[in-house]
Amino acid sequence: EYRPSKHKGQWRDAERVIFFGPLARSIIVPILVGADSYLFPSRKGHHYTRYSYQRAIKDACARAGVTPWTSHQLRHRCGTEIRLALGYDHAQAVLGHAGKSVTDRYSWMETAGKLAKEAMEKMG
Predict the structure, then answer these.
(1) Does the N-terminal or the C-terminal CB of the chain have fewer CB atoms within 10 Å?
(2) Whether 69 contacts 56, CB under 8 Å
(3) Is 70 exceeded by the pLDDT of residue 124?
């Protein structure tokens, strides 16, 4: 588990805990053992800011010739996949949302699209 020192809910004295599953741990732990740096250091050896991280993704997309995407899109996708596989409460917990309305905004449109497609496939 990871407890960030700064996060957007800290003003409410809310603790943020991010849990890692077995696959993520199997990848991350060997990198971190004995490491004195960041898991994803920038080219200069420091940590990424949210702006430099987005810039690095955008630059990598340009080099690869693919449509640019954002890290926030990954978060939305993760929330949607968790909601579809495990249910609403699990998605809300993983995303760290205090209210269900925020989780709705993250995953409703994509979830609704999949459900609509599934319904029409079954109904003909």
Answers:
(1) C
(2) no
(3) yes
